[in-house]
Amino acid sequence: MVTHSTLTLAKMSATTLSSPPSSLSAPLQGLGSKLPLRSTFTFNIRRSSFPQLRASANNLPSSLDSGSSTELDAVSSFSAIVPDTVIFDDFQRFPPTAATVSSSLLLGILSLPDTIFKSAVDTALADSDCASIGKSDARLSCFYDKALVNCGADLAKLVPGRVSTEVDSRLAYDTHGIIHKVHDLLKLYNDIEVPAERLLFKIPSTWQGIEAARVLESEGIQTHLTFVYSFAQASAAAQAGASVIQIFVGRIRDWARNHSGDSEIETALKRGEDPGLALVTKAYNYIHKYGHKSKLMAAAVRNKQDLYSLLGVDYIIAPLKVLESLKDSVTTPDEKYAFTRRLSPQSAATYEFSKEELVKWDQRSLTSAMGPCAVELLTAGIDGYSNQANRVEDLFGKIWPPPNV
User: DSSP string of 304-365?
Assistant: First the structure.
């Protein structure tokens, strides 16, 4: 029997990730990822078995044969296609395999009188260890972490894949703070028997965040570096051994349309390339040419042409309108165009990098190499997540203690 719990979450997104093509041998099958600040939408959570959007075949072709019945089947042969801001009513069409727990999720829960995650937050606010902390800021931070983990544990029961937990962006420039926070979150998950292999930790790609990821990965803790807007960030993240590196294609394009003065973007434009797509291509080629373990995720994909241009990258986050169009479009043997893998380890091997691009990054060189696009968008992302965390803690301060405590 399938049970249903319907809720509306303001400014919350839940992302799902299908298993990547098996030939990619990803250690992170079933990653969840989240993009910040999406509009309101309705979820219908179904506690049932989840069919999966899987990429096919051990050997990925350079172009597709005529066997696929829809365009979605076709593109899924090359990359794992990740629905963005999934409406859970569409489980059968776009089945989720993972999720993200974040400050925006907590805000959504707190904005509603009753959701299936309400008990996770109520339990956090009733935690005696947190309540016994005398200092208000520390007590609210404890409640915040408990609520994240309780919601993450609930999500882990609903999806078969991994749950990605947002690491407090207010620590984005504090390497030791990030490491300590991840250790704390991991202990809380362990206390409620959520195994580490089901978890990822999402960290902003500042130099301090990248260094934290390096340490955490050396401890066997999987990290997901986000807010990547430059090749310097992407290659530094790969050198650090980050499990997943997330690049926002559309946001880079949007910045380029309204700004100038970024040499990396201007170089791509002079070659007639979209700067967001060019960054994904360059980062993919770097990772594969030099044997880094990282998997690359292309986010903020705006249309089908973007998706076609990225085929072969490990993960593509696509909006529902694009997925619906792909799902509803039937391919035929005499299709006038072929779906072609644009990114591959073979093409990466022939890609030429300049001497300046092959440096071993440190804080000074990374800071110098990041152009205004990366600096501005990274700062905006961190500020947005930090403001959301502050709002959650402010709301906790207003409603604590709950009536039954």
Answer: HHHHHHTBTBSEEEEEHHHHHHHHHPBP-TT-SS--B----HHHHHT----GGGG----HHH
Nearest alpha carbon to residue 322 among 100, 96, 82: 82
Q: Which domains does the chain have, with CATH numbers?
A: 4-399 (3.20.20.70)
Report how far residue 353's alpha carbon sits from residue 347's, in angstroms, rounded to the nearest whole number. 13
> Which two three-digit tokens encode residue 11?
């400014």
- The token duo for 204 is 């902003």
Residue 186 main-chain phi, psi, to 5 deg:
-65, -40
Q: Considering 146, 181, 202, 282, which one is annotated as catalytic?
A: 202
pTM exceeds 0.90: no
Cα–Cα distance measured from residue 355 to residue 361, given in angstroms and rounded to the nearest whole number: 13
CB 156 within 8 A of CB 114: no
- What would the pLDDT profile of 179-213 be if each residue is shown by its tens digit? 999 999 999 999 999 999 999 999 999 999 999 99
Active site residue 304: no
